[in-house]
Please model this.
Amino acid sequence: MPRVLLGQDGGDGFGHAARLAPIADALRRQGCTVRLALRAPEAARPLLEPLGLAAVQAPMVRVPARPDLAGHRTAGYVDLLAIYSFDRPGHLLGLVRAWDRLLEAFAPDLVIADFAPGLALAARGTAPVVHVGSGYTVPPAAGERLPLLRHDSDGLPEEAMLAGFNDVQRRRGRPPLASLAELLRGSAAFVTCLPLLDPYAAVRAEPALGPLRPLPAPAEGPPETGYFAYLAADYRGTATALEGLLASGRPGSVYLRNADAGTRDEWRRRGLTVHDAPQPLPVAAGQAAVVVHHGGINTTEAVLALGRPQLFLPRHAEQVLTSEAVMRREAGVRMRTGGRFLPRHLAAALADAALPSTALAARALARQAAAAGPHHGLERVVATCLELLRPRP
Model:
């Protein structure tokens, strides 16, 4: 049976696992032996177990502190690589060698990389590599240079990043890359998000493929509660945001990812309704007048499709860009990044997000998303993978 390794190098939350899991499940149903390598396999277990899947620990190398990047605005993919210190050959070499060991042990016939340039570099020349991800993590790579997202910020030099990657190749005794774009083209690359959420849409030759899974239908009827919040317990602004939800006086409920029982109970004592387990998003978000979250691509797409206004608390640059796409269509509101706000600021933003004009714009955006579907992203990705696995004469 063909063997397929699916892995990630960076990212947090469930977004990468949620993208790789349905691909792994579909390939397994086609007779492939699959192995998932995730940064947080235990956290992804509730997502994987219903599919009968499990994951191993993806190679992780401690990311050093980068005071030199403090205050630097991300201009493009090269800056994203620098956040993970891929511009430092010694750091990248440790990661790639860890992938080398996993590749040698599993011997895949195909590799699927979700924001995994280290894995892609390790697999280059040994197995076909298919890249999947959001628009932010799968930049257009048709040319020899990667495009910038922002021109009001000096991006880190692509030539220096490429030199670091090729230093790793030299130390491994492998052929050099002609460009970073060459690595990111792989054998195929798929942008698995709504085109309107692709930050590179204006310069991408082929529009984004669209979500891998069907999006929920627009919610029917008026909302039953004031808000639903899906936040990470380790985000520096979460406690302030929860204070703001209390200060708003609006009814609603919260799910805190990675929160322990004591933290959940403390907020319950303060007056919040806090769920112990993740809630089905189409139900929880569909019943809410506003959905409060960080701006992960999967959550944003689902809430957008439901037609509910969104209040964003971004944790990093991709979520800022995702929130901007929704805000340009007047269907959401964003708090300041980095958690630098007060409870009263969040309460005011929640009121703005609940305005009839914002709700009207959100419903219009949901109709636009529904009209663009149905999306057959999973079928296209799987068909390409099976073609790459087909024995050649």
The mean pLDDT is 93. The longest helix spans residues 89-106.
